[in-house]
Amino acid sequence: EIVNLDLVKPNFETKAINIIGDIRKKEDVEAVLQQHKIDLIISLAAKHHDFGIEQDEYYDTNEDGTRVLCEAASKAGIQTILFYSSVAVYGLQSFYTTEESTPKPDHPYGGSKLAGEKVLQAWCAEQPNRKVIIIRPTVVYGPGNKANMFSLIQQIDRGLYFHIGRADNVKSIAYVENLVQATLFLLKNVSQSGVSIFNYADEPQLTTRQISTQIAHVLNKKIRITLPLGVALLLGKPFDVFIKLSGKNLPVSSSRIKKLATATQHSAPKIKEMGYKPSFDTLTGLEKMVRWYKVYKKQQ
Question: Whole-prediction pTM value?
Answer without folding.
Answer: 0.92
